[in-house]
Amino acid sequence: MAGDQTPQPNGGSGDVPSGAGQGWTALGYLITGMVFWGFIGWLVDQWLDSGGIATGIGVVLGMAGGIILVVRRLGTPT
Amino acid sequence: MFGQANVLAAGQAAFPPSVEDFYLPSILPWGAHDSYWFTKITAMVWIAVGVLIIFFLASYRKPQLVPTKKQWFAESIYGFVRNNIAVDMIGHAGVRFAPYFTTLFCFILLTNFFAILPGFQISPNSHIAFPAILAVISYVLFIYAGIKHHGAGKFIKNSLIPPAPWYILPLLIPIEFFSTFLVRPFSLAVRLFANMFAGHMLLLVFTLGGFAMLSANTWLAPVSVLSWVMTIALTFLEFLVIVLQAYVFTVLTASYVQGALADEH
Q1: For residue range A11-40, what is the model confidence (pLDDT) as tens digits?
Q2: Which residues from chain A sit within 8 angstroms of residue B167, using beta carbons?
């Protein structure tokens, strides 16, 4: 069974960062999406005095954006 | 240099430890309290730089085919960073960056390790200035590598415009910009700083807490002992954090370089 090793992924010039880097990237996208668009929504709230509605919309939109980014950037390469 | 230990022995340490405890008295001029040009922290950074330079120079002075123990150790560190971080994350192009990653890894590991080394007992990385500068170096490196590899226009296009339909791009581009160019250096610096800061604070709380309880009431002595036992246990936890944070910092830098070099997909 000496030659019976599973082929090691040798990195290559793959598009997708491996392991820890990928995790942090995904986490970064999710948090940044929420924080950034939430902040924009909060600014809109301050401007229109709409009592938090825009912040909520912003957070949800940002979350969606973050998820899209994770799927597009880190999802299975086609 | 051992000011803190003397304060402990004299039993006059203020109990809840504060940020003040991270600003150690000046060495040059000796004992000045408002001069931060050359403190224990500065000395430790220079010692770390010196130790690393001397260690690697000495290990590679007469390289042998069958390595000596020192050479084997140095080669293991370099080999680990090159194979398990640089090549693993970036691929063959990563070998170019391996020397920087090794330097980064060793420097962070050693300066972090000062946090639990008797006599040193504080990490320079518990001051945000040092992680911040390291993060800036990594930040400049990955942007430079990306621009050199792709050209400025294509690099910015690659990193800002994700593969997605045009109508959601306005939603995504700000997130990309924010997470790639603003959050990355910030989180890199803060992660290392916060870990080392919290670790030192934790050890201070348990050590000084033991003394505080002992001087408050002698009957609390068993609890003091428990507190010091906890300090020892936490020191081992600190060791784990030290190694992990050095590794994470290097891996993330490698991951950013990889992202900058990656072709569009």
Answers
A1: 444 445 556 677 888 888 899 999 999 999
A2: none
Given CB atoms, is B159 within the 8 Å cutoff of chain A?
no
- Contact between A72 and B165 under an 8 Å Cβ cutoff? The reply is no
Are A17 and B162 in contact (CB < 8 Å)? Answer: no
Residue with tokens 């390595």: B67
CA B207 to chain centre: 23
Residue B256: CB atoms within 10 A of its CB come to: 26
Beta-carbon contacts of A77 under 8 Å, excluding residues fewer than 6 positions away, are A15, A16, B265
Contact residues on chain B for A11, CB-CB shorter than 8 A: 87-92, 94
Instruction: Indicate whether this model's pTM tops 0.90.
Output: no
ipTM value of the model? 0.71
Find, among A28, A71, A22, the residue nearest to B258 by Cα.
A22
- Is-cis flag, bond preceding B99, omega within 30? no
Q: What's the burial of B243, exposed, middle or buried (CB within 10 Å: 0-12/13-18/19+)? A: middle
CB contact at 8 A, A41 and A57: yes
